[in-house]
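Dear support,

I submitted the protein below through the web form. The confirmation email said the job was done, but the results page showed an empty box. After a refresh the structure appeared. I'm attaching both so you can tell me whether what I see now is the final result or a partial one.
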Amino acid sequence: QLQASGGGLVQPGGSLRLSCASTTTTLDNYAVGWFRQVPGKEREGLACIASSDGSTTYSESVKDRYTISKAYGKNIVYLQMDSLIPGDTALYFCATDLTSSCTNYLRGFFGQGTQVTVSS
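What the results page shows now:
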């Protein structure tokens, strides 16, 4: 089970750092990604960090604004979100399919999400 946290209300242009933790899965060993969900819209994959080589991938909508990283040894994966815009408002989840690559993380398992609201 993965637990996302760190969401909240932030003004446009602000920043938030989300955390993904697990008490049952060693996140250092697997690729972990973040996606967001808005009611009525499809799940949107945002970022992923592979365990095979530590490489990262981002969607075009968040590239250059979001940064994914792993706190090795702490079993936490972060998503640093900068220059937030109202369109970033969503419920954010972290996920893994227990493989080393980011190819199918969106088909993996995830836990409760954390709400991010960007509004003035």
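Response: this is the final, complete result; the empty box was a page-load delay. The mean pLDDT is 96.
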